[in-house]
């Protein structure tokens, strides 16, 4: 009976997907902009989250921003500098612990309600309350620690008193975790959040698409399309094929190098590409009782992985190989870092042999101290930005030193939930490392006192430096601290680095203005419009 129910669910999901894609395909001769009709934009992308509640999970907050549903007080430019958006100014006290934002006049939510400082206050507090109640895993406290928020609707001011000094709180509030939504709206936040963006959700078709329409109350110029369809497409090649057939007008992140080359070589498409601040890496679960808590095993695993081949051949140059959790493109002393675990399979084997991690029964796999139980590492991944290919290639590398690896592909939400629950040994992910213009929140992943430390890593010197980083406002000193922190993580083998990602947005010639941003928070905007 259980098998029948599961098959039935798959059949239903397949039918829904077929109906959705069929509806979009049918539009390509009458409603899609790829046929010359400027009323509808079809956007193909990976489904990163089934929820649209910004508090529920990090991916959901990003989706609300990416799909043009909601906006933040500030917005990052291509140099990752925060620019005024829903707020038009900010002032701080001398010690950078009290920040007053002025909310722009005349902005409305897509349901017609005015955007007020009180509405912004409720939106921010909602996300924090969900985290406190255990209903949301977005963890806004990773980036903002505040004592109070006060709203003065008459003056249009929102004042935030923080628990620590911030170099620039406007950059923090440009993070999609702080996207502003109407928490008093009579819609389901998970399916239909109400924001101030150019498009509003009409209907969410679970796992297949989101039907949207122009926000008639939009504050920042004309909205180019009357309708917007967000079409979920599982893998990169399928995204390319959908673009080729005219089923979609714009797609995000073709991560198959041969498909991307076809698009670049064709005169039918526009390609926007940028080497931004993203790192592809695998968390290494070092919590007590997990295999990778063993320093020798972790070091040997890292030395067994051929990063250069994986980046240049396996994923066709879509990533640049590297040794640190922060990309080489960022100004945090990358060139001064030293690799503690360079690729060397024979040395990796010797480390294991010397540590007594050997194959005592001759089955090809090693055990701890010959206890007869094979070491088996669970390796989680999902199909996005070449993570699946990295995982499979990395697993094959690790197996060459006699460590069994069980690869499990799942979806983004499930993987995140397993990460936060600690139910993994290795887990591939791809992070924007400077989510608020600096790497502080990202580096908290390895701070032992943080709830965001999902891998159980602990180093007293790292913790001390991280705490200095939180209160330092001098940019040169910040760079030196971050450089030292990176080297500690490298020396301790804290994470398995895949490489540094090159993002892209591809579109048909019927569309203009579809560009990829360094921040990777912004996909759909009024800049995307029918080509002239």
From TrEMBL:
Main location: membrane
Signal sequence bounds: 1-23
Domain Solute-binding protein family: residue ranges: 81-453
Protein name listed in UniProt: ABC transporter substrate-binding protein
Species assigned in the record: Intestinibacter bartlettii
Keyword ATP-binding: no
Keywords attached to this entry: Signal
Source organism, top-level taxon: Bacteria
Alphabetical list of PROSITE patterns matching this protein: PROKAR_LIPOPROTEIN, SBP_BACTERIAL_5
Subcellular location(s) of the protein: Cell membrane
Pfam families per UniProt: SBP_bac_5
UniProt similarity note: Belongs to the bacterial solute-binding protein 5 family.
Membrane topology: Lipid-anchor
InterPro entries according to UniProt: Peptide/Ni-bd (IPR030678), SBP_5 (IPR039424), SBP_5_CS (IPR023765), SBP_5_dom (IPR000914)
């Amino acid at each position: 009976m259980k098998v029948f129910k599961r098959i039935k669910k798959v059949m239903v999901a397949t039918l829904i997907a077929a109906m959705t894609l069929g509806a979009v395909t049918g539009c390509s001769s009458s409603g899609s902009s790829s046929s010359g009709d400027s009323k509808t934009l079809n956007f193909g992308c990976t489904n990163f989250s089934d929820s649209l509640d910004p508090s529920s999970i990090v991916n959901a907050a990003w989706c609300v921003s990416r799909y043009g549903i909601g906006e933040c007080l500030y917005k990052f430019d291509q140099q990752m500098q925060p620019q005024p958006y829903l707020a038009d100014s900010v002032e701080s006290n001398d010690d950078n612990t009290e920040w007053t934002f002025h909310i722009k006049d005349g902005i409305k939510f897509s349901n017609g309600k005015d955007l007020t400082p009180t509405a912004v206050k409720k939106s921010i507090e909602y996300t924090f309350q969900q985290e406190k109640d255990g209903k949301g895993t977005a963890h806004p406290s990773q980036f903002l620690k505040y004592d109070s928020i006060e709203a003065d609707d008459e003056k249009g001011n929102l004042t935030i008193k923080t628990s620590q000094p911030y170099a620039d709180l406007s950059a923090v509030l440009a993070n999609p975790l702080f996207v502003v939504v109407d928490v008093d709206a009579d819609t389901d936040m998970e399916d239909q959040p109400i924001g101030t963006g150019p498009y509003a959700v009409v209907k969410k078709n679970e796992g297949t698409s989101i039907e949207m329409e122009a926000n008639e109350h939009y504050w920042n110029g004309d909205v180019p399309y009357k309708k917007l369809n967000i079409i979920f497409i599982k893998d990169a090649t399928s995204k390319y094929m959908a673009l080729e057939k005219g089923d979609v007008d714009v797609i995000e992140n073709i991560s198959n190098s041969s498909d991307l080359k076809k698009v670049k070589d064709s005169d039918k498409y526009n390609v926007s590409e940028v080497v931004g601040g993203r790192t592809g890496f695998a968390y290494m679960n070092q919590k007590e009782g997990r295999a990778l808590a063993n320093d020798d095993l972790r070091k040997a695993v890292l030395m067994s992985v051929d990063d250069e081949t994986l980046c240049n051949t396996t994923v066709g140059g879509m990533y640049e190989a590297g040794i640190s959790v922060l990309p080489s493109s960022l100004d945090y002393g990358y060139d001064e870092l030293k690799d503690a675990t360079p690729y060397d399979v024979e040395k990796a084997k010797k480390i294991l042999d010397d540590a007594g991690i050997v194959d005592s029964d001759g089955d090809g796999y090693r055990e701890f101290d010959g206890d007869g139980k094979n070491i088996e590492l669970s390796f989680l991944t999902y199909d996005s930005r070449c993570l699946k290919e990295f995982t499979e290639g990395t697993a094959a590398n690790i197996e060459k030193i006699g460590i069994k690896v069980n690869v499990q592909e799942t979806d983004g939400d499930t993987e995140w939930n397993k990460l936060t629950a600690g139910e993994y040994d290795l887990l591939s992910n791809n992070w924007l490392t400077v989510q608020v213009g600096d790497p502080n929140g990202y580096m908290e992943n390895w701070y032992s006192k943080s709830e965001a430390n999902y891998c159980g890593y602990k180093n007293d010197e790292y913790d001390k430096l991280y705490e200095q980083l939180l209160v330092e406002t001098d940019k040169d000193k910040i760079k030196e601290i971050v450089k030292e922190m990176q080297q500690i993580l490298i020396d301790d083998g804290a994470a398995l680095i895949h490489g540094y990602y090159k993002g892209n947005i591809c579109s048909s010639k019927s569309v203009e203005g579809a560009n990829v941003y360094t921040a990777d928070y912004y996909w759909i905007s009024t800049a995307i419009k029918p080509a002239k």
